[in-house]
Amino acid sequence: MRRHRWPAQPPPATGGTQVHGPTVLAAHPYLTLQLNDITAYPSGMQLRLVLTATGRCAELAHHETRSLTDPEDYSGHWSYLSVFVTIGDIEGEADPYHPVTRSTRARPTEYRTLPHYWVGTCQDSGALTLTAGWEEIGLPPTTTTIKLGPNPYLPSTSRSE
Question: Which of the residues 10, 16, 34, 92 has the least number of beta carbons within 10 Å of its own beta carbon?
Fold first, then answer.
């Protein structure tokens, strides 16, 4: 197994074919983690996740993602959703390139983030294993193996002659 780290970068600007739709990865009383979709491109795949937290979990998420430039915060400690991907013979951590967080001042006990991840590899493995967690807010690591639909950018290995 080769180890890799996928950096925070967007997918190509055009193209892409959805190879997997929405799936709930974890559901706890105050936390939900969902895979929105996986889109294949000639050079890799985009994974779009949605994490929603309420109550104390949301308060912790707001605290963990506060700006490090806050003059009132001297700790310099922060955290975010951790995502680990295995596809074929490659495994590694993926960094979010578009961690959009939505909240309102009127409801500080709600937190929602929509991170996107770029996995810059295309392999004909037919499945992807995703481990995601954020223990600092109460989401233990959860692992899901996702069967992928046909990737039109890979040559077919089962052609009949």
Answer: 10
For residue 123, give both structure tokens. Answer: 């392999």
Cβ burial of 148 (10 Å; 0-12, 13-18, 19+) is middle
Block residue for tokens 């937190």: 111
* Predicted local confidence at residue 115, as pLDDT: 93
- Residue 155 to residues 20, 109, 149: CA-CA distances in angstroms? 19, 48, 14
Per-residue pLDDT of 50-93, as tens digits, reads 999 999 999 898 888 875 445 566 666 778 899 999 998 899 99
Rounded Cα–Cα distance for residues 90 and 98 (Å):
23
What's the predicted TM-score (pTM) here?
0.85
Collect all residues with Cβ–Cβ distance below 8 Å to 144 and sequence separation of at least 6. 23, 25, 35, 129, 130, 131
Helix (H, G, I), strand (E, B) or coil at 136: helix
| SS3 of 47-69 | EEEEEEEEHHHHHHHHHHCCCCC
